[in-house]
Amino acid sequence: MKNLLSIESLSAAEICRILEFAAEMKSTRGRHATHPLRHQCWGLLFSKSSTRTRVSFEVGIRELGGDALFLSANDIQLGRGEPISDTARVLGRMVHGAVIRTFAQSDVEDFARYSGIPTINALTDDEHPCQILADLQTIRERLGSIDGKIVTFVGDGACNVPVSWMWASAKLGFELRIAAPKAYQPAPELLARLGTNRVIVTDDLATAAEGADVLYTDVWVSMGKEEETAYREAQLGGYCIDAALVKRAKPGALVLHCLPAYRGKEITEEVLEANAETIFTQAENRLHAQKAVLSLLVK
């Protein structure tokens, strides 16, 4: 594995290796036997703001012995129109790896190609691979394995998080149900590319939740879609994880949210607080899963 650009680009074996290493990173935090990023400096190029992504990567890089250099779009020439290929060729000669949080998937892929250094997709409009790896780690911790499980995603089924979940289902073979209004369902072309019948798309929220092992949701308004807020809230208003929906899932089902959460919209206050310990463990696992990725990229 030279880069982490998407879940689509990973094999099932690579995903499992990351998850096994993530568990090791978590169990040995504060007493790692080696520091694989020692004497390295990694650049964090963020065109989109963050809490969990920035903190987890900066802390993770430092815990692995490296230094982190945070660069927002306003700090570098990308914000003034420099081509990503030029930025990549400059930084490729100065830093040892890059973590990129931006809009276009092509920017992350072009950076990896032109820079020649390990590159991590920390979120694009197409995929959010780091989030799904942390989610899978959480499920393994709480349920033992993803094998044979049913994951139900509720909300905007065409955004980056469910897309990464779809590829995870295609690679690992678990059942994924996406409950979304028809206008917010994944494109037929993407579903055809998956090459699996384990991804089920429906606008029937109740049926999608029936017997699920995991209920998962995300914000209705992703970054860059703020001008659509009123319309999206009207369209997605019925797609909320509430107590009634949880009762349809399997007893003891996990409720996950990749945060930030807007209580009373995609999830109720009652359900979020009842599942807060799991949800904030899910957030913590971003640190451990990403440390696993960082370590494997420099092996």
Structural key phrases:
single chain, 299 residues, alpha/beta, Rossmann fold, 2 domains, five-stranded parallel β-sheet, 14% strand, globular
CATH superfamily of the largest domain: Aspartate/ornithine carbamoyltransferase
Query: What is the number of domains?
Result: 2
| Helical/strand content category | alpha/beta
Strand order within the widest sheet?
A: 7-6-5-8-9
Structure description:
- By secondary structure, this protein is α/β, with parallel strands linked by helices.
- The protein folds into two domains: 34-127, Aspartate/ornithine carbamoyltransferase (Rossmann fold, 3-Layer(aba) Sandwich), CATH 3.40.50; 131-283, 3-Layer(aba) Sandwich (Rossmann fold), CATH 3.40.50.
- The protein has helices spanning 12-27, 52-63, 84-91, 105-115, 129-143, 160-172, 188-194, 205-209, 229-236, 243-248, 269-274, 276-297, and strands at residues 41-46, 67-72, 97-101, 119-121, 150-154, 175-179, 199-202, 214-217, 254-257.
- Helix 5 (129-143) crosses helix 12.
- The longest helix has 22 residues, at 276-297.
- The termini are close together.
